[in-house]
Design goal:
Blueprint lengths: L5 H6 L4 H7 L3 E14 L2 E14 L3 E5 L6 H9 L7 E8 L2 E2 L5 H7 L4 E4 L13 H12 L4 H14 L5 H4 L9 H14 L4 E5 L7 H18 L2 E6 L2 H4 L5 E6 L2 E7 H6 L4 H8 L39 H5 L5 E5 L2 E3 L12 H6 L5 H13 L3 H9 L1
Parallel strand pairs: 3-8, 3-9, 6-7, 7-8
Antiparallel strand pairs: 1-2, 1-4, 4-5, 9-10, 10-12, 11-12
The structure holds adenosine-5'-triphosphate and magnesium ion.
Length: 386
């Protein structure tokens, strides 16, 4: 396992991330995290060298299609992977290394310092206790208060996450609540724990659109009340638009683009990100056809060399089959993208890219010339998300 010590820091080139870490602003630091699962068909390379820093109070969105390694990355952070998983790299929570930490050490952190909110709230709730009891227990784990006072606080927390008739609901069992209400109870428990980090993994995926918005509001309230930093995991870029300060895009177990929300939404530099943006409905152009990304993500067993997005990428050239591009600076040091042609993507629009198919170098040059001719993309996409 590796971790960056203070001395290393002084020697390193000072990027924005280094400065944040040195000033104690980094609450969670994942470095070169790799996770694999031995299986009958071969070794599943679920997470391949993921690194990120989560700064105090920020919202980091992690987005990618099903199977891209989003959940496995977070389960590794929480120490919740099955024993068969092969894990390497480093996960530091403040000064503490979490990879390889004892169960006793992790129990002190899980739920309390790092709260986890899953897609299915029943994963976190105990069916045989009332929701009031479960929230009150979390309150009492942190504050030396009477049972009555803890229950009183549980009622307040249910009001904060906007459960109707909150006080009466304290006596309900989880199965007596709707899915949206259960998710709010889980958020209330997270708040009672007053965590430093909240990891929300597809917290709204099972819910209808109206309830989704309410849960996002409740999460935002929880974040502001506790001051926690949040990792928000979703397959839908639309969910994190307007919520995330920074966005990381995952594909086939790797980060393929990372930057501020503005970088990723307005000046994407990896074709896959453009693909995700192109499959997002646009409020400013409701009649425009969505452009889905054709094809499916690759198998993570016996991965061929080269960029895993190649078979689906309209820009793919020979080099893409041979060399997997590293995450490299795109429009600035804190905006990185993994694409041999990321420089050529300036001004490309999502629909445009996936509407075309660039078959050779001459066609690529033509595509680039056409797409860089217009420079109003930024305003266009900005309208979409504002
Ligand atoms: N316990 C396990 N054993 C073997 N393979 C696993 C295990 N858990 C996850 N995987 C594999 O790891 C890869 C990444 O899975 P992960 O759950 O992280 O995807 P995800 O990005 O969260 O997808 P989704 O959007 O569907 O939740 C998948 O190919 C999955 O099949
Ligand atoms: Mg998942």
């Amino acid at each position: 396992m590796t971790g960056s010590g203070g001395e290393d820091l002084l020697a390193a080139t000072q990027t924005e991330g280094d400065v944040a870490r040195a000033s104690g602003d980094v609450v969670l630091e994942v470095a070169d995290l790799t996770v694999g699962f031995p299986g009958d068909d071969g070794f599943v390379r679920a997470v391949r060298g993921v690194s990120y820093q989560l700064r105090r109070g920020e919202v980091l969105g992690i987005v990618g299609e099903s199977g891209s390694g989003k959940s496995v990355t977070s389960m590794a952070v929480m120490g919740l992977l099955p024993g068969s998983a092969k894990v390497s790299g480093s996960v530091r929570f403040g000064e503490q290394e979490l990879l390889g930490a004892s169960d006793a050490a992790l129990t002190k952190i899980r739920g309390r310092r790092i709260a986890m909110i899953f897609q299915d709230p029943m994963t976190s709730l105990n069916p045989v206790y009332t929701v009031g009891y479960q929230i009150a227990e979390a309150v009492r784990a942190h504050h030396d208060v009477s049972k009555d006072a803890a229950l009183q606080r549980a009622g307040e927390l249910l009001e904060i996450v906007r459960i109707p008739n909150a006080r009466e609901r304290l006596n309900s069992y989880p199965h007596e609540l709707s899915g949206g209400m259960r998710q709010r109870v889980v958020i209330a428990i997270a708040m009672a724990n007053d965590p430093d980090v909240i990891i929300a993994d597809e917290p709204t995926t099972a819910l209808d659109v109206t309830v989704q918005a309410q849960i996002m509001d409740a999460l935002d309230t929880a974040r502001r009340e506790t001051g926690a930093a949040m990792v928000l995991i979703t397959h839908d870029l639309g969910v994190i638009a307007g919520q995330a300060d920074r966005v990381m895009v995952m594909y086939a177990g790797k980060l393929v683009e990372s930057g501020s929300a503005d970088d990723v939404f307005y000046t994407p530099r990896m074709p896959y990100t453009l693909g995700l943006l192109g499959s997002l409905p646009r409020l400013d152009r409701p009649s425009e056809r969505l452009t889905p990304i054709p094809g499916a993500p690759p198998s993570l067993v016996n991965m061929p060399p080269g960029c895993p997005f190649t078979p689906r990428c309209p820009l793919a050239q020979e080099v893409c089959d041979e060399v997997e591009p590293p995450l490299a600076p795109a429009t600035g040091p804190d905006h990185t993208a993994a694409c041999h042609f990321s420089g050529e993507l300036a001004g490309a629009e999502p629909g445009q890219l996936f509407g075309t198919h660039v078959t050779d170098a001459a066609a690529l040059a033509e595509f680039v010339r056409e797409t860089t001719d217009h420079d109003d993309t930024r305003t266009d996409t900005q309208d979409q998300h504002s």
